[in-house]
Amino acid sequence: MNSDKQSVASTGFVNRKRKPRVGTILLIVALHILGLYGLAKAFAPDMTATVERTVVSAFTVTVTAPEEETPVTEPEPDEGAQGDPGLKATPKPVTAPTSPIKTRETPAPRASSTGAANTSGARDQGDGTGADGSGLGTGSGRDGGGTGGVAATKPQHVSGRINNARDYPVPPGGRDARRGTEVIVRVIVGVNGRASNCSVYKPSPDPEADRITCQLVVDRLGFKPAQDAQGNPVAAPFYWRQRWF
């Protein structure tokens, strides 16, 4: 106290010691730390990087964002889409009414006649198919077992002849080329005994000789006509064989 007073008396001011402030102290400490950090980063960058990662990871807070709910949207109907099917119609059972009218059963008609199975003619006698008379024939008016109009005998050659040497021309290879061959022609012998409608039934190697044979049979030969069972002349076929020797 006395010293303070002496100081004041000599200088005219009072010397009081002030207490340092907290903020000033913190500022000084921070400046020292920054200075040390700058020196360490300049001379030991790897160590400072490791320290930074450690400090940052200590203060890192992982924040998980809530999952966003996906809005559910109902599909819009297509303008041309098919509509929902309607209910299936089920028909009601229908029972046909019973007819009050009773129908009569019509009996089958009776057979027109009865008789033996072997009777087919217009008369009830005999087994034939003719329209008149009795017997076993197929004629329509005569008795007997004949067939009527069918030849019972064959035509017979009675006149005319064909000469191998004079009636045929000499073939290109000579007569020996035709020797040993034959031709068969077919004609129809009428009731007058004349032949007609000649055709080659079995040809020879010489078509020209076959043609000449047909012409000679029709023009030159005469026949006795065939006869039926009653002796009547009827037309019938005849086969003429011409051989060359």
UniProtKB/TrEMBL annotation:
It comes from the Bacteria. Residues 111-122 have a biased composition (Low complexity). Residues 127-149 have a biased composition (Gly residues). Residues 65-177 are annotated as: Disordered. Residues 66-81 have a biased composition (Acidic residues). The chain crosses the membrane at residues 21-40. Keywords: Membrane, Transmembrane, Transmembrane helix. This is Periplasmic protein TonB, links inner and outer membrane. It comes from Altererythrobacter epoxidivorans. The lineage of its organism: Bacteria, Pseudomonadati, Pseudomonadota, Alphaproteobacteria, Sphingomonadales.
